[in-house]
Amino acid sequence: MTAVAVLRLPLAVDLSGFVKLLQRMQVPHRVSEEAGEQVLWVPASISEDVRSLYERFPAGDPDQQLDIPIAQAQPRPGLVEQLRHSKATALVLLLTLIVAMVTLLGDNLDTIRWLTFLDFRVVGEYIHFTPLADSLAAGQWWRLVTPMLIHFGILHLAMNGMWYWELGRRIESRQGSINLIGLTLLFSLVSNYVQFLFSGPSLFGGLSGVLYGLLGHCWIFQLLSPNPAYRLPRGVLVMMLVWLLVCLSGLVSMIGFGQIANAAHVSGLLIGCFTGLLGGLYNRRKLTSK
Predict the structure, then answer these.
(1) Domain residue extents for the chain
(2) Helix (H) or strand (E) run with residue 40 in it
(3) pLDDT tens-digit series, residues 10-52
(4) Residues involved in catalysis
């Protein structure tokens, strides 16, 4: 199913109402930002219908019952179609899945030691960590970010993978694959290093710090420069912030879920809010300068 650009509008134009109308009608679509414009993409076979619909209802009309055949003619975008537009998101998740398999979800210490923040060796019942400076001097700079690929248990992997798919696609659709990869690496580096500063030599991993970075980025960016791509489902922000507070309280560790990398979560959220602030201010300045 080939997608075409059916609308190209200034960023100042509010498409949210029309996007809600398309969602209610189950019309496959996506919104991207290109060259200072927001672009609405739909399957080529229904492009004229969607263009005509926008001419009639540019602000959307969710209260009116419309009888337009494109809703029944086209199914929701399938997984293959979503993957085509979310290549960077899918790549990160694929790497995470591969690492989960080769490390046996963290049980294969001989393999996992190549991806941890600190190299280590097991002597009897003890783990001896190599200083970070020694690893970096040996050229092992990948250790600053690769802990995000390590997961300890299927639930850990499934939850982090689900949220990265949800948040990563939003950023990739609006800011592009390169920006998503850059933000992912930045959030991983910051959250890993802060966790190391707070916990000292230890084994930690997971996408959680990156996820809170993506959450903070979408949150603040959307406040400053609203766009349907960054409008999170109702309750998601509250739920993740409440979960952060529950983890900080120590309750999760007390009931047997293991140690939580709280420093990674908090630092990820803070650096994400900062990048969202910079990106939102920059985007809003572009709008006002036109």
Answers:
(1) 3-77, 87-288
(2) strand 37-43
(3) 887 888 888 888 877 778 888 888 877 888 888 877 887 788 7
(4) 208, 265
